Amino acid sequence: MRTVRRPISAPFARTSGVTRSTGSPLTGSTVVTARITNEMRQALNDVFIAFGVPVPTYTDGQTLLAGTIVKAIHIQELRNFVGVIE
To answer: How many domains is the chain partitioned into structurally?
Structure first.
């Protein structure tokens, strides 16, 4: 997940001049929850907005409901969309 979080934070800082936290720190074997995924999606959306481009469309909607099992596609989409803004 660090490979997704860091690239989201860097463009946000470049466009806004502000460092944005993408949630609580991940340590060891952190379980990736819907909340963590939603935080990263929102941070990524903010970067897209800062660049003046439409926000991405995500599998299972913009916000995952609490208790949703995070799927590989959710993480892959974040990686893919980060690649668009790098």
So the answer is: 1
